[in-house]
Amino acid sequence: MKVSAVIVNYNGEKFLAGCVASVFKQAKRPLELTVIDPGSTDGSRALLKTLGESFKELQVVLLNENVGFAAAANIGIRRMQGEALLLLNSDTSLRPDFLEKLCAAAEKLDTRFGMFSGKLLRQQDENLVDSAGQFIRRTLRPVERNYGKPDKNYPAGRIFSACGAVMLVKKGLLESLRFENEYFDEDLFMYFEDFDLGLRAARAGWKCFYEPAAVAAHYRGGSDRGQKHKIFLFRNKPLELKRHLLANRYLVLTKNASAGLLLKYFPFLLVYEVFFWLYLLIFDIKVIYGLKKYFKLRKRMKLKGKMLKGQGDKELTGWII
To answer: How many CA atoms lie within 13 A of 133 on its CB side?
Structure first.
């Protein structure tokens, strides 16, 4: 399997050199490596120039503005020459046999497996897992299996989807889910774009595989400040990003969740929404203005949802935990 690697970097100077070096150190070298930088304001661009001198094969695309993760990733996808995409955040690093192990697993599976995940450890503490595959909570939110916990050594096998920090995706899957000229949904800008891709892929009959022998590390949230509970992680994020998180949750449900699915999990949704909105009203009321994005885009999301063809809810409910 010929693989094109794409790194999306926005103000990731602290991690970028390590991420690039880890890709070039792979036992199975990718066909190409492209870094997409959507308007970084730290020292990333000067660093990319230096990295380009050290790694002559490195391709760099510099954008003049922050177009968001989804749009930046799509630029990389449209440029790729390989049969599969290795997509990485710049705050990740791969062990030297990561791609070799993941491709070896992928090549043994049937053709409906189009997405692949390795084991992601916490870069801050590799005794903890960042993601052992993505699943769905009963509140219809994404959950990274074993998030922030010691490794439970889950075996290789089928999972719902892959964490967007590091994922391997076949070009055929991406092309089958393309809407207009988009693979990841650019209306989301950032956050939930990997969950949205996983939902669309599952509904279309694609499968995802987890290979724990392929190991990478991810620095989850540079602004986490050591907090473990997700409500504190949310609270510490910049206001504009929190607004994207709020709007995108509802946009992804509008696009991908049927009335039957929402009704089935309504009690869980109700409890979560009540507590979350109480938090917003008491502690973070300015985030609510993010709903302007939702009301602006909901009709377009409904249209995108109608364009999806697939197997309905049956391919989703088995992954809800």
So the answer is: 24
> pLDDT (tens digit, 0 to 9) for every residue of the chain, 321 residues total?
999 999 999 999 999 999 999 999 999 999 999 999 999 999 999 999 999 999 999 999 999 999 999 999 999 999 999 999 999 999 999 999 999 999 999 999 999 999 999 999 999 999 999 999 999 999 999 999 999 999 999 999 999 999 999 999 999 999 999 999 999 999 999 999 999 999 999 999 999 999 999 999 999 864 343 445 566 678 888 999 999 999 999 999 999 999 999 999 999 999 999 999 999 999 999 999 999 999 999 999 999 998 876 667 888 999 999
Instruction: Please report where in the chains the tokens 């791969």 appear, as a residue.
Output: 94
Element (H, E) at 230: helix 230-235
**Does residue 60 sit in helix, strand or coil?**
strand
Whether 115 contacts 169, CB under 8 Å? yes
Tokens of 150: 């010691």
Quick one: tokens of 124?
A: 């801050």
CB 162 within 8 Å of CB 117: yes
Contact 242/191 with Cβ under 8 angstroms? no
The span from the CA of 307 to the CA of 177, in Å, is 10
Are 84 and 3 spatial neighbours (Cβ–Cβ below 8 Å)?
yes
**What are the distances in angstroms from CA 32 to CA 24, 54, 98, 250?**
9, 15, 16, 36
Helix (H, G, I), strand (E, B) or coil at 115: strand
pTM (2 d.p.): 0.94
- All domains of the chain, ordered by start, with CATH? 3-218 (3.90.550.10), 230-317 (no CATH)
- CA of residue 92 relative to chain centroid, distance: 12
The tokens for 281 are: 């009203």
